[in-house]
Design goal:
Blueprint: H1 9-22, H2 28-49, H3 56-59, E1 60-65, E2 72-77, H4 85-89, E3 96-101, E4 104-112, H5 117-142
Antiparallel strand pairs: 1-2, 3-4
Helix pairs in contact: 1-5, 2-5
Length: 146
């Protein structure tokens, strides 16, 4: 690691978000590819966790945002390519969700969630935070900012 400091957990994510918001506007286009590359490890891990799906792994992408409280590196599942991803991840906080059987509004079933993003984050989150922090620190040093 460049900084020698390891940021972990929610507090680590807050520190990284603050670092992203502090990046000068003129450096953002230079740093964005490094951040996306750092987030790629989580995307690959989430795709692996969702290997049971034919659509979810291909729907995942990484993006980086610098502004406001939502600054960060994100792994996003395309709602168009995998509309079921949100329910299967368990975003609502429940361990099950209900849906009609093949669109039959009269016949509904319960299905267990199969988290893939949160599982990838649990396994590789600290490494991803390190990679993002290193990308920010290295880019800032390369560009002469301290």
């Amino acid at each position: 690691m460049t900084s020698g400091v390891r940021y972990t957990g929610v507090s680590g994510l807050r520190i990284v978000n603050a670092k992203l918001r502090d990046i000068p506007r003129e450096l953002r286009s230079t740093i964005r590819p490094r951040l996306v590359a750092a987030g790629e490890m989580l995307r690959a891990a989430a795709a692996s966790e969702a290997s049971w799906s034919t659509r979810i792994p291909a729907s995942l992408r990484v993006t980086a945002k610098f502004a406001g409280a939502r600054a960060g590196v994100f792994v996003i599942a395309s709602q168009r390519k995998a509309p079921h991803a949100r329910a299967l991840e368990g975003i609502s906080g429940n361990s099950q969700f209900r849906h009609p059987v093949f669109g039959d509004e009269e016949d509904w079933v319960s299905q267990a969630t199969r988290p893939f993003l949160s599982a990838a984050l649990a396994r590789h989150g600290d490494d991803a935070v390190d990679a993002v922090t290193d990308a920010i620190d290295e880019a800032m040093l390369t560009e002469g900012f301290h």
